[in-house]
Design a protein that fits this description.
The complex is a heterodimer. Chain A has helices spanning 2-20, 51-56, 71-74, 77-88, 105-114, 128-133, 170-179, and strands at residues 39-40, 49-50, 60-66, 92-98, 121-123, 137-138, 140-144, 150-154, 193-195. Chain A is α/β, with parallel strands linked by helices. Helices cover 38% and strands 20% of the residues of chain B. The chains are: A alpha/beta, B alpha/beta.
Chain lengths: 199, 175
């Protein structure tokens, strides 16, 4: 009898497909939700850095998906370096993550050193953390409170190439609000950026 | 038996020429100098005039490597569709300082025949949200509008000739 064999074959095929189908990636964190934890190695080598350790000793953590070659990211290097120092003194930790497959760890480390980044600079091989955060471009900012709750997502400000004429310092506004114990005025903002070069 | 002799039949020759022109029509226009595009003008200047045809709008920049990489593929994909079915427009996110020279230079060197606008917006968020609220601002980005003028498909990141062709074909064939 062919019908039972056909039914069994179809069932087998369905089961096989179900078992091999790729799992859906987790949804990107929304404002107010707890962002995914991660542990990544520094681009310059050394002991891996865990987000939960940074959260445990900070009033907030600023996660920046960064790049070495993207003009939008490059336009912000000086500002990020300066803000990293300024806000470290106020208890806020900056950390940059490079998820680009086209930018090796050594290049990322050199770039960070060249720009004077005095905070963790991590390499996300296989863009795993970028996927967890739903990060699509560089630069892309996520600000987390000590519990890992996402308070702000988006841009640093509205102009990557005119730092003297910033009219909307959104990241600074978010950080100042957090330090003052107030709600972040604009929790989500947008800017242009370069797509993350994924595997 | 000898095949048809086109030169002996003027009507056939004319029809053949017209058919060839229509086939390459989607990419036959020469590249024009870039013009500035404000967010408030996007709908009227870029989208509105193309209703009835599928419209591809590609957001790119000369400094964006995947944007440059996919441009020949967009040209190749567009060539497969007649101009009565497809229009293609580019919107460059190059800076106002370098865009007016860099953009036409690139388009000329690459023989890209599409009209190209140079986005002009004090705040990029205004431009991004005007174009597509679901767009996060990453480049390259391609919108495909259906014949009804509504967004039919969104392509984010580097595309290939095959992915452009498939997306366009679906929009062209949609009822």
């Amino acid at each position: 009898m062919k019908t039972p064999r056909l039914a069994l074959a179809l069932l087998g095929t369905t089961l096989a497909l179900a078992c091999t189908a790729p799992a859906e990636p987790p949804a990107a964190p929304k404002i107010g939700a707890v962002a995914p934890d991660f542990t990544l190695p520094p681009a310059a080598g050394g002991e891996a850095v865990a987000l939960k350790d940074l959260l445990g000793k900070s009033k907030a953590v600023v996660v920046i998906f960064d790049a070495t070659k993207c003009p939008y990211a490059k336009g912000y290097k000086e500002r990020v370096a300066a803000m990293g120092k300024e806000y470290a003194a106020k208890g806020i930790t900056f950390v940059t993550i490079n998820s680009n497959k086209t930018e090796p760890a050594a290049e990322v480390a050199d770039d960070a050193k060249k720009h004077g980044f005095a905070f963790p600079v991590l390499k996300d091989e296989g863009n795993r953390v970028a996927d967890l955060y739903g990060a699509q471009k560089t630069p892309e900012i996520y600000v987390l409170d000590p519990k890992g709750t996402l308070l702000y997502r988006g841009r640093i400000d509205e102009t990557h190439d005119d730092p003297k004429n910033v009219k909307s310092p959104d990241l600074i506004n978010a950080l100042e609000a957090i330090l003052a114990g107030k709600p972040v005025p604009a929790a989500e903002t947008k800017a242009f950026g370069c797509t993350i070069k994924r595997v | 038996m000898a095949g048809p002799n086109v030169s002996a039949n003027p009507r056939s020759a004319a029809a053949a020429v017209l058919a060839a022109a229509l086939l390459v029509g989607a990419v036959s226009a020469s590249a024009e100098p870039v013009k500035h595009l404000l967010p408030r003008d996007y709908a009227a200047r870029v989208v509105a005039g193309k209703k009835g045809r599928v419209l591809v709008v590609n957001f790119w920049a000369t400094w964006c490597e995947p944007c440059r990489e996919e441009m020949p593929d967009l040209v190749a994909a567009a060539r497969k569709f007649p101009s009565r079915d497809l229009a293609v427009t580019l919107v460059s996110l190059d800076s106002q300082k370098t865009g007016p020279t860099q953009v036409p230079k690139f388009l000329k060197e690459q023989k890209v025949p599409f009209v190209c606008w140079l986005a002009k917006s004090r705040d990029p968020q205004d431009f991004i949200d005007t174009v597509d609220r679901t767009w996060d601002g990453s480049l390259p980005y391609t919108l495909i509008y259906g014949r009804d003028g509504k967004i039919a498909a969104r392509l984010s990141g580097l595309q290939t000739e095959a992915s452009f062709t498939e997306a366009i074909r679906r929009a062209v064939g949609a009822k």
